Structure formats: C-alpha cells, structure tokens
Amino acid sequence: VTSKPDISGIHGCGNTFSNPYQSFSGPYYNGDGSTIQCLWTIHSYDSSPIVLTLDYLNLDCTHEYVHVYDGNVYQSALLGNICSGWSWIFTSYTGTMTVLLHRESYRAGSGFFAYYNIAGNLGTHTFLFPTAKYL
Fold it and tell me: 124 pLDDT exceeds 60?
C-alpha cells in the first residue's frame, strides 16, 4: 500500500484544469530550504483519457519529488514518484489526474515543465524513459 502524502501544506500554487490541453510548470523556488507543496488537478468531464508529459524535471532527488496520481490524491493509485529527467509520460483513464510537487532543498529554479492532452481515443500505452531518475 502506497502511503498518501500530507497535503495540508499546499502553498497557493497549482491549479485545476479541464481544458482539452494545457501546459504548466512548478513555481520559482528560491532554494532557501523551506517546504512548499503545489497541487495540480486535471479533469476530463467525459472521462476521456488524460495524457500527461513531464518534459523536464530538475529536482533535488533527496528532498524533492513530483507524484502523479491516477485520480484524486487521497483516493487513487500513484502512477509515478519522480525527481529528474525528461519525457516522462503518464496516462489516466479515470477522468482525473493529480500532480503533487514537493520541494525543500537548496536548489533554486522552477523544477519542472509539463503539459497534458485530453483525447477520446488514445492508445493504452504508458511510456517511461530511462533518462529520468525514479525514486
């Protein structure tokens, strides 16, 4: 059983999306060692598959991560727990996908860039590329 993160410390960052496609990135983090958490939720109102691409991740893998959930962060399976690399692709078939960013290090920067697409007829493949560091 995967433990669920404590998201009580969400810091006014993140968003909720239902557009057919959208890009987003982590907020600028000054690397002061403070803890921030951000939550992005993507909804497909007709339950079409959601394909998320994390095109770039540059986090301190000791203290920082991105969790990708197949649905709501409290009620669904963890699709990925990642911290670095590029071209990570995740697919959700539940109509909801949640992305949680956790940072607390001395590495400054935005941390990641992502985009998603909602489509009615996508394949059933989820691709994970070895260029990223998996926690």
Answer: no
Token digits for 67? 């969790």
pLDDT digits (tens, 9 = 90+) for 79-93: 999 999 888 999 999
Q: How many domains does the chain have?
A: 1
Single pTM value for the model: 0.81
Sign of the four-CA dihedral 134, 56, 16, 70? negative
Q: What's the start-to-end Cα distance of the chain, in Å?
A: 16
Can you give the residue range of the structural domain that contains 50?
13-18+36-118
Q: State the CATH number of the domain containing residue 94.
A: 2.60.120.290
Amino acid at 8: S
Token duo for residue 8: 């009580």
The greatest distance separating any two alpha carbons of the chain, rounded to the nearest whole angstrom, comes to 44
DSSP state of 62: T
- With respect to residue 7, please indicate whether it lies within any of the assigned structural domains: no
